Amino acid sequence: MWLFELLYFVYFFVRLRLETSLYTKEEYKKLITIRARKLSKRYNMKIYVHGKPQPGFLAANHTSYLDPVVVLALKAGGAVSKIEVRDYLLFGAIAEKVGMLWVKRENRKSRTGVINQLNQWNAAKDPLWIFPEGTTSSYGDLDPFKMGVFKAAENTGHMIQPLVFCYDNPLVDWGSTGKEKDLFRSIIDFYKDNIRTNVYCFWLEPMKVEAGQAKVVAEKLHKKMLIYINHFERPRDE
Protein backbone atom coordinates (compact mmCIF):
# COMPACT_ATOMS: atom_id res chain seq x y z
CA MET A 1 0.00 0.00 0.00
CA TRP A 2 2.71 2.47 0.95
CA LEU A 3 4.52 1.75 -2.32
CA PHE A 4 1.37 2.60 -4.28
CA GLU A 5 1.06 5.89 -2.42
CA LEU A 6 4.72 6.67 -3.03
CA LEU A 7 4.17 6.07 -6.75
CA TYR A 8 1.20 8.41 -6.64
CA PHE A 9 3.38 11.06 -5.03
CA VAL A 10 5.91 10.67 -7.85
CA TYR A 11 3.10 10.89 -10.42
CA PHE A 12 1.87 14.06 -8.71
CA PHE A 13 5.20 15.80 -9.28
CA VAL A 14 5.81 14.32 -12.74
CA ARG A 15 2.49 15.81 -13.79
CA LEU A 16 3.39 19.20 -12.34
CA ARG A 17 6.77 19.04 -14.07
CA LEU A 18 5.20 18.32 -17.46
CA GLU A 19 2.76 21.19 -17.00
CA THR A 20 5.42 23.86 -16.45
CA SER A 21 5.33 24.84 -20.13
CA LEU A 22 1.53 24.85 -20.41
CA TYR A 23 0.72 27.73 -18.08
CA THR A 24 1.82 31.24 -17.29
CA LYS A 25 3.58 31.79 -14.00
CA GLU A 26 0.41 33.09 -12.33
CA GLU A 27 -1.75 30.28 -13.71
CA TYR A 28 0.79 27.73 -12.57
CA LYS A 29 0.91 29.10 -9.04
CA LYS A 30 -2.88 28.82 -8.76
CA LEU A 31 -2.68 25.26 -10.06
CA ILE A 32 -0.05 24.34 -7.49
CA THR A 33 -2.16 25.70 -4.63
CA ILE A 34 -5.14 23.59 -5.72
CA ARG A 35 -2.96 20.48 -6.08
CA ALA A 36 -1.20 21.02 -2.74
CA ARG A 37 -4.56 21.22 -0.98
CA LYS A 38 -5.71 18.00 -2.63
CA LEU A 39 -2.46 16.26 -1.68
CA SER A 40 -2.90 17.34 1.94
CA LYS A 41 -6.42 15.93 2.06
CA ARG A 42 -5.37 12.66 0.42
CA TYR A 43 -2.94 11.96 3.22
CA ASN A 44 -5.21 13.25 5.98
CA MET A 45 -2.88 16.14 6.75
CA LYS A 46 -5.45 18.52 8.14
CA ILE A 47 -4.52 22.18 7.81
CA TYR A 48 -6.22 24.68 10.11
CA VAL A 49 -5.79 28.34 9.21
CA HIS A 50 -6.37 31.48 11.26
CA GLY A 51 -6.28 34.87 9.58
CA LYS A 52 -5.55 35.98 6.03
CA PRO A 53 -2.30 37.14 4.41
CA GLN A 54 -1.57 40.72 3.44
CA PRO A 55 0.93 41.84 0.77
CA GLY A 56 4.58 41.64 1.80
CA PHE A 57 7.51 39.26 2.15
CA LEU A 58 6.11 35.93 3.35
CA ALA A 59 8.20 34.86 6.34
CA ALA A 60 7.62 31.43 7.92
CA ASN A 61 9.28 28.97 10.26
CA HIS A 62 10.84 25.78 8.82
CA THR A 63 10.81 22.32 10.42
CA SER A 64 9.78 19.60 8.02
CA TYR A 65 9.91 18.14 4.52
CA LEU A 66 6.13 18.82 4.55
CA ASP A 67 6.60 22.59 4.85
CA PRO A 68 6.54 23.29 1.08
CA VAL A 69 3.19 21.48 0.74
CA VAL A 70 1.75 23.49 3.64
CA VAL A 71 2.86 26.94 2.47
CA LEU A 72 1.89 26.26 -1.16
CA ALA A 73 -1.53 25.09 -0.03
CA LEU A 74 -1.96 28.46 1.67
CA LYS A 75 -0.40 30.81 -0.87
CA ALA A 76 1.73 29.84 -3.87
CA GLY A 77 4.83 31.87 -4.51
CA GLY A 78 8.54 31.72 -5.08
CA ALA A 79 11.07 31.28 -2.32
CA VAL A 80 14.70 31.60 -1.38
CA SER A 81 16.31 28.17 -1.32
CA LYS A 82 19.70 26.51 -1.22
CA ILE A 83 21.00 25.90 -4.72
CA GLU A 84 21.20 22.13 -4.18
CA VAL A 85 17.40 21.93 -4.53
CA ARG A 86 17.72 23.04 -8.15
CA ASP A 87 19.24 19.65 -8.99
CA TYR A 88 16.54 17.60 -7.26
CA LEU A 89 14.67 15.38 -9.70
CA LEU A 90 11.41 17.13 -10.69
CA PHE A 91 11.50 19.69 -7.87
CA GLY A 92 14.03 22.00 -9.49
CA ALA A 93 12.04 22.77 -12.63
CA ILE A 94 8.84 23.29 -10.65
CA ALA A 95 10.63 25.65 -8.30
CA GLU A 96 12.04 27.62 -11.22
CA LYS A 97 8.54 28.07 -12.63
CA VAL A 98 7.11 29.61 -9.44
CA GLY A 99 10.06 32.00 -9.10
CA MET A 100 12.75 30.50 -6.88
CA LEU A 101 15.82 32.50 -5.86
CA TRP A 102 18.85 30.24 -5.47
CA VAL A 103 21.63 30.79 -2.99
CA LYS A 104 24.93 29.05 -2.25
CA ARG A 105 24.94 29.28 1.52
CA GLU A 106 28.69 28.92 1.84
CA ASN A 107 29.36 31.51 -0.88
CA ARG A 108 29.35 35.11 0.33
CA LYS A 109 29.00 36.51 -3.20
CA SER A 110 25.93 34.35 -3.81
CA ARG A 111 24.33 35.44 -0.53
CA THR A 112 24.99 39.09 -1.39
CA GLY A 113 23.44 38.56 -4.81
CA VAL A 114 20.23 37.22 -3.33
CA ILE A 115 20.07 40.11 -0.87
CA ASN A 116 20.42 42.54 -3.79
CA GLN A 117 17.52 40.82 -5.55
CA LEU A 118 15.41 41.07 -2.41
CA ASN A 119 16.20 44.76 -2.19
CA GLN A 120 14.58 45.21 -5.61
CA TRP A 121 11.76 42.71 -5.19
CA ASN A 122 8.13 43.78 -5.49
CA ALA A 123 6.79 41.65 -2.67
CA ALA A 124 3.28 43.06 -3.04
CA LYS A 125 3.02 41.97 -6.68
CA ASP A 126 5.09 38.77 -6.61
CA PRO A 127 4.74 36.69 -3.39
CA LEU A 128 8.01 35.30 -2.09
CA TRP A 129 8.42 32.80 0.75
CA ILE A 130 11.43 33.20 3.02
CA PHE A 131 12.42 31.00 5.96
CA PRO A 132 14.39 33.44 8.16
CA GLU A 133 16.14 30.63 10.05
CA GLY A 134 18.01 29.82 6.84
CA THR A 135 17.69 26.10 7.63
CA THR A 136 15.32 23.71 9.40
CA SER A 137 14.84 23.85 13.16
CA SER A 138 14.10 20.89 15.39
CA TYR A 139 10.50 20.11 16.27
CA GLY A 140 9.36 22.42 19.05
CA ASP A 141 12.22 24.86 18.52
CA LEU A 142 13.06 27.89 16.41
CA ASP A 143 16.61 28.76 15.38
CA PRO A 144 17.79 32.41 15.41
CA PHE A 145 16.72 34.48 12.41
CA LYS A 146 19.08 35.75 9.76
CA MET A 147 18.69 39.39 8.79
CA GLY A 148 18.18 39.09 5.00
CA VAL A 149 14.41 39.51 4.76
CA PHE A 150 14.31 42.09 7.54
CA LYS A 151 16.97 44.20 5.84
CA ALA A 152 15.12 43.84 2.54
CA ALA A 153 11.89 45.02 4.18
CA GLU A 154 13.77 47.94 5.67
CA ASN A 155 15.33 48.88 2.31
CA THR A 156 12.23 48.44 0.15
CA GLY A 157 9.49 49.59 2.51
CA HIS A 158 7.58 46.34 1.96
CA MET A 159 5.84 44.79 4.91
CA ILE A 160 6.80 41.41 6.34
CA GLN A 161 3.81 39.07 6.39
CA PRO A 162 4.63 36.38 8.98
CA LEU A 163 3.17 32.91 9.05
CA VAL A 164 3.80 30.55 11.94
CA PHE A 165 2.65 26.97 11.51
CA CYS A 166 2.90 24.10 13.96
CA TYR A 167 2.57 20.34 13.58
CA ASP A 168 1.19 18.08 16.30
CA ASN A 169 3.30 15.06 15.31
CA PRO A 170 7.07 15.18 16.01
CA LEU A 171 7.68 12.49 13.37
CA VAL A 172 7.40 15.12 10.63
CA ASP A 173 10.71 16.57 11.80
CA TRP A 174 13.61 15.83 9.42
CA GLY A 175 15.68 14.58 12.34
CA SER A 176 12.96 12.93 14.43
CA THR A 177 14.84 9.62 14.52
CA GLY A 178 17.96 11.27 15.90
CA LYS A 179 19.66 11.25 12.52
CA GLU A 180 18.95 13.85 9.88
CA LYS A 181 17.53 12.34 6.71
CA ASP A 182 17.55 13.58 3.15
CA LEU A 183 14.40 14.60 1.31
CA PHE A 184 13.70 11.32 -0.43
CA ARG A 185 14.35 9.16 2.63
CA SER A 186 11.91 11.35 4.57
CA ILE A 187 9.23 11.01 1.90
CA ILE A 188 9.59 7.22 1.81
CA ASP A 189 9.31 7.02 5.62
CA PHE A 190 6.25 9.27 5.51
CA TYR A 191 4.38 6.61 3.52
CA LYS A 192 5.90 3.53 5.13
CA ASP A 193 5.14 4.74 8.65
CA ASN A 194 1.72 6.11 7.70
CA ILE A 195 2.51 9.44 9.37
CA ARG A 196 -0.44 11.72 10.02
CA THR A 197 -0.47 15.22 11.42
CA ASN A 198 -2.57 18.29 11.98
CA VAL A 199 -1.04 21.63 11.00
CA TYR A 200 -2.08 24.80 12.80
CA CYS A 201 -1.34 27.91 10.75
CA PHE A 202 -1.52 31.48 11.97
CA TRP A 203 -1.15 34.54 9.77
CA LEU A 204 0.29 37.13 12.13
CA GLU A 205 -0.06 40.89 11.84
CA PRO A 206 2.15 42.35 9.07
CA MET A 207 5.28 44.05 10.38
CA LYS A 208 6.91 47.21 9.05
CA VAL A 209 10.65 47.63 9.46
CA GLU A 210 11.63 51.23 10.08
CA ALA A 211 15.14 52.47 9.38
CA GLY A 212 17.68 50.80 11.66
CA GLN A 213 15.07 48.48 13.20
CA ALA A 214 15.72 45.23 11.30
CA LYS A 215 17.26 43.41 14.26
CA VAL A 216 14.59 44.65 16.67
CA VAL A 217 11.78 43.46 14.40
CA ALA A 218 13.51 40.11 13.82
CA GLU A 219 13.81 39.48 17.57
CA LYS A 220 10.22 40.54 18.17
CA LEU A 221 8.92 38.16 15.48
CA HIS A 222 11.11 35.32 16.75
CA LYS A 223 9.67 35.64 20.27
CA LYS A 224 6.12 35.80 18.93
CA MET A 225 6.51 32.71 16.71
CA LEU A 226 8.16 30.76 19.51
CA ILE A 227 5.08 31.26 21.72
CA TYR A 228 2.96 29.38 19.16
CA ILE A 229 5.57 26.68 18.59
CA ASN A 230 6.05 26.05 22.32
CA HIS A 231 2.29 25.72 22.74
CA PHE A 232 1.49 23.38 19.84
CA GLU A 233 4.67 21.41 19.17
CA ARG A 234 5.10 19.18 22.20
CA PRO A 235 6.32 15.59 22.54
CA ARG A 236 3.47 13.08 22.26
CA ASP A 237 3.89 11.92 25.88
CA GLU A 238 3.16 15.37 27.34
Please characterize this protein's 3D structure.
The chain is α/β, with parallel strands linked by helices and 238 residues long. It has a single domain (2-171, 181-232), classed as 3-Layer(aba) Sandwich (Glycerol-3-phosphate (1)-acyltransferase), CATH 3.40.1130. 42% of the residues lie in helices and 14% in strands. The chain has 8 helices and 7 strands. Strands 1-7-6-2-5-3-4 form a 7-stranded mixed sheet, with helices on both faces. Helix 1 packs across helix 7 (183-192).
Give descriptors for this structure.
single chain; 238 residues; alpha/beta; Glycerol-3-phosphate (1)-acyltransferase; 7-stranded mixed β-sheet; 7 strands; 14% strand; globular
In short:
By secondary structure, the chain is an alpha/beta fold. It has one domain: Glycerol-3-phosphate (1)-acyltransferase (3-Layer(aba) Sandwich). Helix content is about 40%, strand content about 15%.
